[in-house]
Amino acid sequence: MLTAFTNGTIYTGAQVITGKTLLAEQGKIRALVNPAEVPTGATVVDCNGHIVAPGLLDLQIYGGGGYLFSAHPSPEALNAMAQALVKSGTTGFLLTLATDTMEVFHECIRIVRNNPHPAVLGMHLEGPYINPAKKGAHTLELIKRPERAELESLLAAAGGMVKMITVAPEMCDPAILRWLDEQGIILSAGHSNATFKEAMEGFQNGVRAVTHLFNAMSSLLHRDTGLPGATFRDSSVYASIIADNIHVDDNALIISKKVMGNRLFLITDAVEANNTGASQHVAQEDHFTRPDGTLSGSRLTLMRAVQRCVQYAGIPLDEALRMATVYPATLMGIKDRGRIEPGCRADLVIFDHQYKVQKVYIAGAQQ
């Protein structure tokens, strides 16, 4: 079926286009054409002057739709989470697991592998290979150093489903980091107390990204700039950031964006209320905490993070959208998402100028 999206401002990821009609066919973007060139018989979607953008991509999210997935690993929880995210404009995500037992990891991986969903890009394991000194909301007793045999077993069970692992590079044998990189795993430094030197060594050994910049990591000090300073210094390294003015002050967001440019991308780090297992979260007004009060997750949607970047950090909308589409897709090596280009999957979010999502499409099908 050929669908024509008309009367919208199209943010392609490379430019902002008005006065054109977006054609999608067989689940993919076909072309941008003049309205008079729309083929007869096409299904016309009037975008009512709203914004048409690539579906958003969240590389770190633990739950949604009322479920923290690691506490309720089931097809029902996975579908509820995916539906809630898609409704909010996120058409692709890495289902994320915080530090837990290997049994929980294996069960979660099994459920995700056996129940494919078009919005699931894969899985992100945040831990357990992190630094106890920067554990944040992670369970201390489950933190450990990585061992090759355990990782081989885990990745074999995952069958390619695990795409990203957050590690503290200073706690890992460089040979294991290099091996994980060779397996195609995106290594991200986080929950780390690395010095500047240790962080740079981690980058040289395969670490390509940094998890939730500034949170649960060594500080940027004038005598040792730590992991944040190394992130700023190495122009090949990406970093995620939680733009809610709780995890990170808006001024830190502004400064980071000025320094990092297209290496900084948005995540939600969103969780759901849960009172069982290793990851327990208590809902507060605009965030989540552990029962002891430790900050443990956000209540963001990625669309609200984009909105905050524009309204509070002064980032132009097209660039804020790239932080939630193009840049995470580039880090992941995904060629057919995060952009509106011929041949890309027709994952689209249509939202108004108050950032309220109106319609969402995955592979050209309205959700």
Automatic annotation (TrEMBL):
EC number: 3.5.1.25
Short name of any one Pfam family annotated for the protein: Amidohydro_1
Family to which the UniProt record says this protein belongs: Belongs to the metallo-dependent hydrolases superfamily. NagA family.
Name this polypeptide is given: N-acetylglucosamine-6-phosphate deacetylase
Cofactor note: Binds 1 divalent metal cation per subunit.
Gene transcribed to yield this protein: nagA
Enzyme class: hydrolase
UniProt binding sites for Zn(2+): E126, H191, H212
Residues at the active site: D269 (proton donor/acceptor)
Gene3D superfamilies: Metal-dependent hydrolases, Urease, subunit C, domain 1
Species per Swiss-Prot/TrEMBL record: Chitinophaga fulva
A biological process from GO: N-acetylglucosamine catabolic process
Cofactor(s) required, per the database record: a divalent metal cation
Keyword annotations of the record: Carbohydrate metabolism, Hydrolase, Metal-binding
Matching InterPro entries: Amidohydro-rel, GlcNAc_6-P_deAcase, Metal-dep_hydrolase_composite, Metal_Hydrolase
Binding locations of substrate: A137, N215, A216, R223, H247, L295, S296, G297
Domain of life from the UniProt record: Bacteria
NCBIfam families: nagA
Every Amidohydrolase-related domain range: 51-364
MF terms in GO: metal ion binding; N-acetylglucosamine-6-phosphate deacetylase activity
